[in-house]
């Protein structure tokens, strides 16, 4: 069974005239042929390196060798990374491992390691983790393609010092660097300190790296079938080989979201999984869509300030926090539901309290039935109020389906970039922040400058509490 994209509720005939005119989607067919041709050209030139990840290769062999060999000497795997170096691994962990994986004992985990992802530099969290983790039984996977990511490298420096203090010269065995194959400070440090490494292809950006060593090494170490992940990705690549818009799921997704934004003033794109296991796919997508499509300039240099705003939601939880806005607020959103056709587990709801109608109707059903019904009801409520929504349904949340879903959304992002006329592969806004951080923290007199800044008198338009 394949991944299904149901977009009927994006179209005007289902929404009382408020949705996308089917004729507008038909008019996108020629633009899509151009987008597809451009995407294939960039893929074949090696510019879109994430496509080639689906084919596996020597890197996958190296990942399996490490995961099945030296990697199994550890009880804990800690990923140090941020953004694309972390979100993909979190999505894989949430979708494909037991929801309480790190709380299971060794036998229940089949002696695979626990998996932690530390993606921020808040000292309250980072320090507390290092105070409790068993360093002699822990491998730290430092992920930064450039080796210059301030957050990740600060984590690395702290961890290295702790490991040296606890293990002496043996600290090197507890580090793994996932970085550029030839350049960058992590690559240089690996050579200097004899630390094991895995490569991130130069043509693969962080937010497109989930199917590289960035995501596959942690997945393999905890027993996720990386071969199935890649098989699902390859199947989706094949499905998206066609230049016919209606037959290309990534193309349809991109075209509908683009039309909703540019023709119907709906720039807010909500992804709402009705599955806890798919919850963090929405977080991963949020970075993918925002960082790829939010651009000041077109590929030709024209100033456009383009880009939709992705939002993460969760069904049924956020029916009680966000759906009121989606149903009755501004017509500025699309909702994409993620659903699982065949849930792997279910819980029976007991029949009790028949005298209370508010409870009696639940008895004899299951939680999976309730969750599915909640999603269908939300779809219907949105459609009745003229709110655009679509559903991406996977057969089941397994490695093959997840690989296909992630690949579909990556390909859709490239198509959408073509529609907007921007380059979805760069991130100059992110780089500006990195440069300013380096410039401020690295300049002489930083401590004095910071003290003066923090002690400054409030500006006229500042409101001081207390």
Please, could you describe this protein's structure?
This protein is of the alpha/beta class and 466 residues long. The protein has two domains: 231 residues, Rossmann fold (3-Layer(aba) Sandwich), CATH 3.40.50.10490; 175 residues, Glucose-6-phosphate isomerase like protein, domain 1 (Rossmann fold), CATH 3.40.50. The chain is 45% helix and 13% strand. The strands form three sheets. A five-stranded mixed beta sheet has the order 1-12-11-7-10, sandwiched between helices. Strands 3-2-4-5-6 form a five-stranded parallel beta sheet, with helices on both faces. The chain is globular.
Brief synopsis:
With 466 residues, the protein is α/β, with parallel strands linked by helices. 45% of the residues lie in helices and 13% in strands. The protein has a 5-stranded mixed β-sheet with strand order 1-12-11-7-10, sandwiched between helices. The chain has a 5-stranded parallel β-sheet with strand order 3-2-4-5-6, with helices on both faces.
What descriptors fit this protein?
Rossmann fold; 2 domains; five-stranded parallel β-sheet; 17 helices; 45% helix
Q: Tell me, briefly, the overall form.
A: globular
Strand order in space, largest sheet: 1-12-11-7-10
CATH architecture of the largest domain: 3-Layer(aba) Sandwich
Helical content band: 40-55%
Rg result: 24 Å
Largest sheet: 5 strands, mixed
How many separate domains?
Answer: 2
Low-confidence stretches: none
